[in-house]
Design brief:
- It is a single chain.
- The strands form 4 sheets. This protein has a 6-stranded mixed sheet, with helices on both faces. A 5-stranded antiparallel sheet has the order 13-12-11-14-20.
- It is of the alpha+beta class and about 350 residues long.
Amino acid sequence: MKITLEHLTKKFGSTIAVNDLSITMESGKMIALLGPSGCGKTTILNMLSGILPATSGKIWFDDQDVTSLPPEKRNIGLVFQNYALYPHMTVLENICFPLEIKKVPKKQRIARARELAELVRISEYLDRKPAELSGGQQQRVAIARALAKEPQLLLLDEPLSNLDAKLRVEMREEILRIQRASNITTIFVTHDQEEASSIADDVILLKLGVLQQQGAARTLYDEPVNFFAADFLGAPPINKLRGTVENGAFVFEGSNVSLTLPLRREVSNGTKAILALRAESVVVPADGASLTARVMNRYSINKDELSVLEICGQQFRGFISGDYPLSIGEEICFSLKKRGVFLFVEETGERLA
């Protein structure tokens, strides 16, 4: 089922939680609503489910305007952050409950619950109560229960936030497998860019209720439309070096060292700018035109060697092979790849290069 939002707005008093949002989410895809706390992610989910009414705008499920439809008529499955399982019911009874509400005959609902338990790999726990399950197992039960009524849309609100790091990775893969097997349009809320990047077909990046960018995670990473998008995605965080634009080149703050980049438009001299560099875009030894930096520190991150460098009094990080000898305090020459190097107007975040 395709989801279309047209100029969707939600206000709480004078606070605008979602601001004139117009997007399309394609049928059968895994879609991430990504952004920091307070950006409107859960509010959008609640408007999609019908829990919250929209202040203005429209919500379409395929060609049906559901903006004013109550939740029970939208045919959606919703998995909350805390799973919201019924503690007095067994796993089987939890999964069967939506079908019981729909007055599906007992034999059919038990058969369907067993199918779903097999899909989410909890068949051996059907007689247990939620308190007897791990966090990951509870999550699987919640997903199975949401799928029981065969929804056209599955909504997941921060589904992994209560799990430890190792289990989060495992459950990311499981959620993707379940979504692919069921082929249900699935929208999940997260503030974790790694989580969104790892399983989403489409990422919708939000800030203060306003759409910043929509596309594949790789596109947002490689071609951010503004400074917020560049800064939000990436680990380690993107390097930020300050300076000004002079005669079409970036000049590092407090120096006459410059870097020429292909600007997208003419820029007035003296415009304050941020040179944003991905750590993997730093090349040592230099390949072609180079700049000079001082080595401040060096440490390992798993298989990678991350070096802290300084240029014109500003520090930045770069991945440099452990096979290349470096000493703290020495000066080295480095160059930059074309990919992962951006220039933004400091005041507005507009991308210049």
